[in-house]
């Protein structure tokens, strides 16, 4: 794990240098110095570094040896979303399909995600910092298929920032073809420009209360969906050692919801500005995060929705809480950053099986 900590320390050092008075370290140089080692560590990793990665390496090997038609008859492997299967097929044209899959996915995951942080955040260095603390880098090493979908959702977010709704919809559609959980971004597409009124806050509160009551019924829905039945069957087993994670999720996103509410109420955000849109999407993504945490108490599958929401927090938090802030807003910002630190610390104490990250090894070992 020391290599990941070195990467984090390197990003912290770059951020320190960039924020020094008179620093000549430009945002573009900081981006490249941050993203290149992140991509390289991922691209050259061994198959066993991430448990999900092992499954996808098996899949691309089967597709290469059996051909498309026979591969699609294999059940679980043939049930992958069409966009991901197309990527697997592309990798079979390389001499080493497994290595090609790891390299291409690493570039698409970390290259794209760091790029969006760089292009959309008012303080990219801080966003890189929060991105790592939010366990996004670790997740990208194992949850390949969903992490690819996260990249495309982040591209959709960047299009929203540029008032390009059409491309935002297209990127979201592409994300869904890699992992169906990307559907969680659809409501954010619809409400990103809607300012949360008192009525909306009340509605969100009622929705949280109702979900707490009906969440125990959620496993029934998944028992009728063959693809996800395994999460229900084994979800309890996964949650035994990590039962605190859903509670941590709820607490984390609950505080973020409060922080964005304070930002909307106390900061002088100009109507129609990107800061207002970021604050809105920060509120609604935090609300969804609380809902996800509640349902994760019952069905293990839902915790993965969190990984579409954390990058949004990394961008919006750094963009909204900037400049000359009052003492109260500085405190709220500081606690929000501390929440990311606590999330990362909690991750360190969770059973490794929850995230599926093993000791780092090179591909050729």
UniProtKB/TrEMBL annotation:
InterPro entries xref list: EpsG-like
Xref: Pfam families: EpsG
UniProt keyword Phosphoprotein present: no
Protein's UniProt keywords contain Transmembrane helix: yes
Residue stretches spanning the membrane: 98-117, 129-157, 169-190, 202-225, 245-264, 276-295, 301-323, 335-357
Assigned keywords, A-Z: Membrane, Transmembrane, Transmembrane helix
Protein name in the entry: EpsG family protein
Species annotation: Collinsella intestinalis
Lineage: Bacteria, Bacillati, Actinomycetota, Coriobacteriia, Coriobacteriales
């Amino acid at each position: 794990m020391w290599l990941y900590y070195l990467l984090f320390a390197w990003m912290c050092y770059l951020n320190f240098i960039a924020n020094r008075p008179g620093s000549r370290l430009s945002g573009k140089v900081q981006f490249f110095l941050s993203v290149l080692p992140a991509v390289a560590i991922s691209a050259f990793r061994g198959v066993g570094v991430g448990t999900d990665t092992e499954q996808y390496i098996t899949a691309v090997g089967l597709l290469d040896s059996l051909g498309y038609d026979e591969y699609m008859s294999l059940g679980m492997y043939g049930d992958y979303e069409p966009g991901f299967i197309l990527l697997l097929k592309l990798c079979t044209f390389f001499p080493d399909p497994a290595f090609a899959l790891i390299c291409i996915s690493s570039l698409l995951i970390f290259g794209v995600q760091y790029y969006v942080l760089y292009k959309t955040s008012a303080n990219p260095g801080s966003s890189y910092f929060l991105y790592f603390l939010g366990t996004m880098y670790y997740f990208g090493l194992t949850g390949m298929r969903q992490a690819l979908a996260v990249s495309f959702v982040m591209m959709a977010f960047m299009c929203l920032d540029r008032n390009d709704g059409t491309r935002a919809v297209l990127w979201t559609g592409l994300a869904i073809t890699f992992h169906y959980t990307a559907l969680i971004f659809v409501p954010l597409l619809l409400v990103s420009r809607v300012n949360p009124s008192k009525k909306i806050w009340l509605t969100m509160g009622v929705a949280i209360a109702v979900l707490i009551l009906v969440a125990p019924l959620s496993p029934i829905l998944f028992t009728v969906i063959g693809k996800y039945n395994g999460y229900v069957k084994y979800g309890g087993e996964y949650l035994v050692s990590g039962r605190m994670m859903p509670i941590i999720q709820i607490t984390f996103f609950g505080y973020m919801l409060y922080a964005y509410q304070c930002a909307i109420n106390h900061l002088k955000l100009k109507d129609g500005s990107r800061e207002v849109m970021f604050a809105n999407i920060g509120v609604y993504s935090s609300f969804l995060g609380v809902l996800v945490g509640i349902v994760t108490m019952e069905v293990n599958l839902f915790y993965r929705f969190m990984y579409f929401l954390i990058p949004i927090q990394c961008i919006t938090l750094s963009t909204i809480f900037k400049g000359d802030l009052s003492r109260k807003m500085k405190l709220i910002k500081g606690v929000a950053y501390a929440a990311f630190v606590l999330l990362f610390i909690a991750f360190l104490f969770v059973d490794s099986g929850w995230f599926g990250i093993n000791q780092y090894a090179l591909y050729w070992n």
